[in-house]
Amino acid sequence: MTTIEVIGTGCAKCHQLEKNVLETVKTLGLAAEVVKVSDIAEIMKRGIIFTPALMVDGELKVSGRVPSVKELSEMLAKGG
């Protein structure tokens, strides 16, 4: 199962990223666990400077922007 982490403190862009990720996972029918990481200490521990950010199976994929559902679909369909 793929682990997808939506990283952000709760701003509007962070919520939009989470919404886009959930929509993408549902549309693609992925077996994925979507985890929201909002603790500042945890975000810093991961080395994230710009939020929102997206990690797939521990690998940083996006930072500082909200990818579209189309972009996320392409990214996640390739296995992350």
What does this structure look like?
There is one protein chain. By secondary structure, this protein is α+β, with helices and mostly antiparallel strands. 40% of the residues lie in helices and 26% in strands. It contains 3 helices and 4 strands; from the N terminus they run βαβαββα. A 4-stranded mixed beta sheet has the order 2-1-3-4, with helices on one face. Helix 1 packs across helix 3. The N and C termini lie close together (12 Å). The relative contact order is 0.27. The model has no long low-confidence stretch (mean pLDDT 94).
Helix content: 40-55%
Number of helices: 3
Sketch the major β-sheet.
4 strands, mixed
Q: Which sequence of SSEs, written as H and E, runs from N to C?
A: EHEHEEH
Radius of gyration, in Å, reads 11 Å
Strand order of the largest sheet: 2-1-3-4
Strand content: 25-35%
Global outline: globular
| Arithmetic mean pLDDT | 94
Kindly, what is the distance between the CA atoms of the first and last residues, rounded to a whole number of angstroms?
Answer: 12 Å
Oligomer: single chain
- Secondary structure class reads alpha+beta
The count of strands amounts to: 4
Low-pLDDT segments: none
